[in-house]
Amino acid sequence: MNCVHWSLLITLCLCFFVNVFSVKISEQCLNCICEASSGCAPSLRCFQVRNKTYCGPYQISYDFWVDAGRPSHSFETCAISKSCSEAAIRAYINKYASDCNNDGVIDCVDFAIIHKIGPQCVNNDWLLVTDYWNAFTETVCYSHKYELLSKFSPKYLTAKNRSNVVSTECMKCLCEASSFCNVNTHCIKGYCGPYLISQNYWIDAGKVGKDFVRCSTNKTCAEELVQNYMRKYYKDCNNDGVVDCDDFAAIHKMGPDCLTSSIYATDYWKHFEYCSIMGTDARRKQQLLTS
């Protein structure tokens, strides 16, 4: 009898575990993945790429279908059926759900990465330059990623980290110091756009946008990168007891190792100081913002 009771208890615990940790992938998210995969073409059958067969509107492979539990017992029949494909995707996502982009939440963006890459989804740099990913970033699921279901960490978007830490006036001076805020600046020795952002900066700031060059050369997208970067490395670089625009200017140029004084002899810093003095008064307004 004791063995029976223990078996029942273990079964109940396992069921509870599965229910608690299963993820929900919304219909909207599935539609976004479908659009990114094939334009959600309902008549798409099978084609081969590098000796692998992909079928249906979600372009599911045989290995994907096997990992998902072989629904309907026929790979091709299931893959070309939208409803069966979606059952396979739900099973696959539940099996491999993880925070692929390390943003503190498991959501549709992660599901889209897993759908294309599989369980090793953290190594996803190559995906960012694919047609699939470019198509996914055009969907509502990417632009409104934090409004979807399946949030394991809702605390990620708090009022504090949603707000901008760099004021508008301070941002103007960072832009002026970087390139005289020339919005037509493309790339110079690996630094792109009006804020002269590097690829490592873009990665550190969360890889906003479709790709590095496209985001950094777009002033609005670049400013989102700057805000993210400052939130990540927020610190008092000059040890004056306050984190203000001077510190953000140092972080923008030097990164987390902003304590060095070598920046003060650069043209960048001279342009920043000139901007701060000549009417924009970035320091004072930044202090009001952060106080």
Automatic annotation (TrEMBL):
<dbReference type="GO" id="GO:0003796">
    <property type="term" value="F:lysozyme activity"/>
</dbReference>
<feature type="disulfide bond">
    <location>
        <begin position="34"/>
        <end position="40"/>
    </location>
</feature>
<keyword id="KW-0106">Calcium</keyword>
<dbReference type="GO" id="GO:0042742">
    <property type="term" value="P:defense response to bacterium"/>
</dbReference>
<feature type="disulfide bond">
    <location>
        <begin position="32"/>
        <end position="141"/>
    </location>
</feature>
<dbReference type="GO" id="GO:0031640">
    <property type="term" value="P:killing of cells of another organism"/>
</dbReference>
<keyword id="KW-0081">Bacteriolytic enzyme</keyword>
<keyword id="KW-0044">Antibiotic</keyword>
<feature type="signal peptide">
    <location>
        <begin position="1"/>
        <end position="22"/>
    </location>
</feature>
<protein>
    <recommendedName>
        <fullName>lysozyme</fullName>
        <ecNumber>3.2.1.17</ecNumber>
    </recommendedName>
</protein>
<feature type="disulfide bond">
    <location>
        <begin position="29"/>
        <end position="108"/>
    </location>
</feature>
<keyword id="KW-1015">Disulfide bond</keyword>
<feature type="disulfide bond">
    <location>
        <begin position="46"/>
        <end position="55"/>
    </location>
</feature>
<keyword id="KW-0378">Hydrolase</keyword>
<dbReference type="InterPro" id="IPR018247">
    <property type="entry name" value="EF_Hand_1_Ca_BS"/>
</dbReference>
<keyword id="KW-0732">Signal</keyword>
<dbReference type="InterPro" id="IPR023346">
    <property type="entry name" value="Lysozyme-like_dom_sf"/>
</dbReference>
<keyword id="KW-0326">Glycosidase</keyword>
<dbReference type="InterPro" id="IPR008597">
    <property type="entry name" value="Invert_lysozyme"/>
</dbReference>
<feature type="disulfide bond">
    <location>
        <begin position="78"/>
        <end position="84"/>
    </location>
</feature>
<keyword id="KW-0929">Antimicrobial</keyword>
<dbReference type="InterPro" id="IPR011992">
    <property type="entry name" value="EF-hand-dom_pair"/>
</dbReference>
<dbReference type="Pfam" id="PF05497">
    <property type="entry name" value="Destabilase"/>
</dbReference>
